């Protein structure tokens, strides 16, 4: 096992890993990531005890050959969003632990509550920004949205409990420097102390780093073509994602109504619906976007998305 801190989201029924070190991991079940580790059960126990104790803990595995250290990621309202966990030999010091910032979007009220950690991770000065009664738009980049950001905005609109998103955003900090932010969000319905239930989006963010294994050879022709196609690819994927979500919301009215809705969303985003079909209880949507280059067109850019009931 690589001796990096793992960030484990604990809001769902099963703990899922969302980051390893500073690299984003897309909601991989802890049992899957550590399936070959002889210390899986010890790590699971450490996470459960950390959530119960509501504080970081240190323990040792049954064979006394590994130390497990944990830190809790807790929102200001007391709800635990996740646990950071490190495991290594007793004589090894843990690697630097990434700072994780919890935050909450209230989807019923349209407001957001941040923490100093979440603001710092987003490149903002916590002393110069308000933490409470923020608008949802305050946490979105001030530019055209890329597909993952559009998904978050769509999640706030569709308001479906159980929806999860884990991805990275590229932002520009207050100092003008580029940042890469990892984040995970989950829509939950919670009963408040004053009685009524509300729909909340509980999230965590952290400073992310690109995956070196994902780097490709830097050929000039590849960079030129990628630069030409990128806007169309982003728009195609965003149109497919939003079209699929919109169609899934209309499935109860029938396949025709669902696909009509998907087509309308695609058209509104400058795309063309190429395919729409029901697969089990989900809807699969494919769209195409023409990529203009001067007076000419290269493409189309194609994208596929699938969505269904939460």
Please tell me about this protein's structure:
The chain is an alpha+beta fold and 310 residues long. The protein folds into three domains: 6-88, Beta-Lactamase; 100-213, Beta-Lactamase (2-Layer Sandwich); 218-307, Pantoate--beta-alanine Ligase, Chain: A,domain 2, CATH 3.30.1300. It contains six helices and 15 strands. A six-stranded antiparallel beta sheet has the order 3-2-1-6-5-4. Strand 11 and strand 12 (197-207) form a beta hairpin. Helix 4 (147-158) runs parallel beside helix 5 and helix 5 crosses helix 6.
Key features of this structure:
6-stranded antiparallel β-sheet, Beta-Lactamase, 15 strands, 310 residues, globular, alpha+beta, 6 helices
Set out the fold topology.
Elements: E1 6-9, E2 16-20, E3 23-29, H1 30-33, H2 40-53, E4 58-60, E5 67-74, E6 80-88, E7 100-106, E8 111-113, H3 116-121, E9 134-135, H4 147-158, E10 164-172, E11 178-191, E12 197-207, H5 220-249, H6 255-268, E13 272-279, E14 282-293, E15 296-307
Antiparallel strand pairs: 1-2, 1-6, 2-3, 4-5, 5-6, 7-8, 7-12, 8-9, 10-11, 11-12, 13-14, 14-15
């Amino acid at each position: 096992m690589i001796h990096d801190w793992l960030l484990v989201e604990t809001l769902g029924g099963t703990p899922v890993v969302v980051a390893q070190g500073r690299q984003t991991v897309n909601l991989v079940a802890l049992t899957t990531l550590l399936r070959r580790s002889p210390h899986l059960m010890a790590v699971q126990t450490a996470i459960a005890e950390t959530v119960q104790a509501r504080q970081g803990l240190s323990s040792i595995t049954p064979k006394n050959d590994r130390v497990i250290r944990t830190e809790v990621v807790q929102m200001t309202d007391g709800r635990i969003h996740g646990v950071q966990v490190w495991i290594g030999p007793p004589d090894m010091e843990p690697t630097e632990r990434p700072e994780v910032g919890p935050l909450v979007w209230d989807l019923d009220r349209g407001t957001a509550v941040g923490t100093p950690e979440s603001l710092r991770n987003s490149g903002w000065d916590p002393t110069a920004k308000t933490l409470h009664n923020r608008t949802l738009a305050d946490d979105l980049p001030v530019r055209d949205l890329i597909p993952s950001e559009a998904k978050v905005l769509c999640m706030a609109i569709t308001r479906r409990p159980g929806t999860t998103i884990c991805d990275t955003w590229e932002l520009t900090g207050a100092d003008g420097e580029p940042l890469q932010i990892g984040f995970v969000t989950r829509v939950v319905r919670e009963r408040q102390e004053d009685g009524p239930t509300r729909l909340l989006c509980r999230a965590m963010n952290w400073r992310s780093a690109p995956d070196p294994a994902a780097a490709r050879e830097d050929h000039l022709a590849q960079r030129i073509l990628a630069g030409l196609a990128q806007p169309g690819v982003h728009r195609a994927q965003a149109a497919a994602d939003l079209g699929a979500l919109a169609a899934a919301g209309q499935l109860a009215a029938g396949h025709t109504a669902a696909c009509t809705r998907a087509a309308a969303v695609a058209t509104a985003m400058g795309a063309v619906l190429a395919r729409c079909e029901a697969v089990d209880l989900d809807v699969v949507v494919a769209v195409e976007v023409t990529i203009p280059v001067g007076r000419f067109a290269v493409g189309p850019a194609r994208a596929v998305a699938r969505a269904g009931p939460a």
